[in-house]
Amino acid sequence: MKWLLPILALLVGGSAVAATPEIVKGSVVVVPIRGAITEAQFFFLRRVIKQADAAEAAALILDIDTPGGALSATEKIDQALLKAKMPVYSYINTNAASAGALIALATKEIYMAPVSAIGAAAPVMGSGQEMEATMTAKVVSYYSGYFRSVAAQNGHNPELVDAFMNLDKEVKVGERVLNPKGALLTLSAQEAVEVVDGKPILAKGIAKSVEELCQKAGLREKAIVRIEPSGFEALAQWITMLAPMFLMGGIIGAWLEFKTPGFGVAGALAALCFLLFFTGHYIAGLTGFEVVGVFFLGLVLVLLEVLFFPGIVILALVGTALMVGSLFFAMVDYYPSQPMDFSFDMFAAPIANLSIGVALAVAAAALIARYLPELPVFNRLVLSKAAPAGPSIAAASEMLYAPGVAVGDEGTAYTKLRPAGKAKFGAALVDVITDGEFLEADTRVRVVRAGGDTVIVESLPQ
């Protein structure tokens, strides 16, 4: 099962995930933080953290070279780093400006390349322009407080956050003025490792490479595994945002396939939507292989009910519950190294997405049931292999809603009724549904209720 989702990601999104080196127990995982900090990088890093923790990796090293980026994405990245079970190191190679500096403060130890710099984290607008004074004061007040707590939790001097972000505050280390009021602090590698009052200002040491960092950090005998972001990471962001739409498409496709015999466009739509849903959430670092396994187990139980043990009901109920549960938990941001937090914050987004998806599917099903059967193209959506030889699909569509079928009329099931399908009454081929019975093709049936577009039948004694 471990190879399934990476291969699906490769097929669907041109992803490089399938070629990603395997993270093994005791290895050192190196991930690049390159370019502007975005939500896509958060998804990538979250996925790697969960995989590395699950594999019991020895350490995680962030290879940082960034001019900064979105504060919201930086906050999420810091939250993910704080949840990591393994020790996390930063290697500044060669720039950790703005958001990059705030990400480094969320790691236990910071090492810097011989020519590198860290700092200057004042917030600006997305266009790069300065914000107006009141908004700047609000943003600096909130985020400096948040990142000070992040720095303190990792053993770094929290005052450095103000030095990086706040123009209006003088920052001292001991008796030394590290950053005067009216300036933003940027530290070179040599300045960051300077010892004041028996402690480095920020960085633990200078290293020429990740390998040298491993030697200095006591990781020299560990295997190094480098993970690169896939081409599907950015697309995964949109898939998670549009999760209700993929859920709606999967549910509607499955419902239409259940209502019509054979495997056609509806079944393909359901398969594609669920494929994209799970693959996108896997790449986004939300779901794992076990959740997909539960979904397929539920699907197998439903198919057993429909194809081999019709009428048992319990198989379909259990299978449906497993499928819905797997869709829900695929959206839960759970870290294997953390105990499950049964809080509203953890389950709010999955509840909202699933509720919206189901509501949209119910509304769409009502519209489809009302209008789709009237369209001539409806029959051509089904690629049926279950129907016996006879008139072509085009000819059958002319007889599909022939008038004159009344309560008490007797006919023959033209396809399997599970419980919906087609039955033939004389020369008329009609869409019918049972009261829950699953009937084989060629079973004698009788109309028990008929009204509008609905014809309900029951089986006749053999």
Provide an overview of this structure.
The protein is of the alpha/beta class. It has helices at 4-13, 39-54, 71-82, 99-104, 133-153, 159-165, 189-192, 210-216, 233-241, 243-259, 265-283, 289-307, 314-329, 344-371, 393-399; strands at 28-34, 59-66, 88-97, 109-112, 117-119, 171-173, 176-179, 186-188, 195-196, 199-200, 205-206, 224-226, 410-413, 420-425, 428-434, 444-451, 454-459. Helices cover 43% and strands 18% of the residues. The strands form four sheets. Strands 1, 2, 3, 4, 5, 8, 11 and 12 form an eight-stranded mixed β-sheet that branches. It has a five-stranded mixed β-barrel with strand order 13-14-15-17-16. Strand 9 (195-196) and strand 10 form a beta hairpin.
Helix content: 40-55%
Give the end-to-end Cα distance, rounded to a whole number of Å: 46 Å
Q: Whole-number average pLDDT? A: 79
Q: How does the overall form come out from the CA principal axes?
A: elongated
Number of strands: 17
Largest sheet: 8 strands, mixed
Q: Roughly what fraction of the amino acids lie in strands?
A: 15-25%
What is the radius of gyration computed over CA atoms, rounded to a whole number of angstroms? 30 Å
Number of helices: 15
Q: Structural class of the secondary structure composition?
A: alpha/beta
Uncertain ranges? 1-19, 379-402
Short description:
The protein has 462 residues and is of the alpha/beta class. The chain contains 15 helices and 17 strands.
Please supply descriptive tags for the structure shown above.
single chain, 462 residues, alpha/beta, eight-stranded mixed beta sheet, five-stranded mixed barrel, 15 helices, 43% helix
